[in-house]
Design brief:
Strand content of chain B: over 45%
Order of helices and strands of chain A: EEEEEEEEEEE
Oligomer: heterodimer
Largest interface: A-B, 27 and 28 residues
Structural class of chain B: mainly beta
Strand content of chain A: over 45%
Order of helices and strands of chain B: EEEEEEEEEEE
Shape of chain A: globular
Number of helices of chain A: 0
Distance between the termini of chain A: 40 Å
Radius of gyration of chain A: 14 Å
Largest sheet of chain A: 7 strands, mixed
């Protein structure tokens, strides 16, 4: 079965660091991009960034550039999203999702077809 | 960055109705447009990619059309399980972006 399994819910204090994960299975991890999407409580979807685990090509939304770091370890089929200093405004659900990589097409041409279950991050003092 | 605008923001309809949701891009994106469905407490689900291609396993009552800047998602005959929030996403370039969502509610 093709799936992305995300790490569990986190409760953190402002200023703390955090790294959440997204593990792929049932498919060739290096044939797909992995993207991250934020959903704040009661709000819509926001595209944060994307990484190609094959060569670590990473692209960020300007809204999130410098605020988070996206990385991947292809040896264990896992992508990561990390913060060095959390803020209360980082409280949200975070989803990872895959998108087929075709070198002649944009990263999302075939859409994000498999999603993780989401990781809830709560930042509160 | 390319901005995506959906309309309406919310919509009330009945089972069996035909429903259309619109998505407009701030510049031409050819056919680089995807549609997703999200139910409360669940991850989004891909319905349509490349403006009009139906994702495997998605019922044929869902269809997409459009190119350039204007796109539509149509549900030909609403079923109870279709009441959800729908998002468009431009796949023309990075940074990608989603529309603000259209909440489809039961009348």
């Amino acid at each position: 079965e093709v799936q992305l399994v995300q790490s569990g819910a986190e409760v953190k204090k402002p200023g703390e660091s955090l790294k959440i994960s997204c593990k792929g299975s049932g498919y060739s991890f290096t044939s797909y991009w992995i993207g991250w999407v934020r959903q704040m409580p009661g709000k819509g979807l926001e595209w944060m960034g994307i990484i190609y685990p094959g060569d670590s090509d990473t692209r960020y939304s300007p809204s999130f550039q410098g605020q988070v770091t996206i990385s991947a370890d292809k040896s264990i089929s896992t992508a990561y999203l990390q913060w060095s200093s959390l803020k209360a405004s980082d409280t949200a659900m975070y989803y990872c999702a895959r998108s087929l990589r075709v070198t002649t097409l944009s990263p999302f041409y075939y859409g994000m077809d498999v999603w993780g279950q989401g990781t809830t991050v709560t930042v509160s003092s | 960055d390319i901005q995506m605008t959906q309309s309406p923001s919310s919509l009330s309809a009945s089972v069996g109705d035909r429903v259309t949701i619109t998505c407009r891009a701030s510049q031409s994106i050819s056919s680089y447009l995807n549609w997703y469905q999200q139910k409360p407490g669940k991850a989004p689900k891909l319905l349509i990619y490349a403006a009009s291609s139906l994702q495997s396993g998605v019922p044929s009552r869902f269809s997409g059309s459009g190119s350039g800047t204007d796109f539509t998602l149509t549900i030909s005959s609403l079923q109870p399980e279709d009441f959800a929030t729908y998002y468009c996403q431009q796949s023309y370039s990075t940074p990608s972006g989603f529309g603000q969502g259209t909440r489809l509610e039961i009348k």
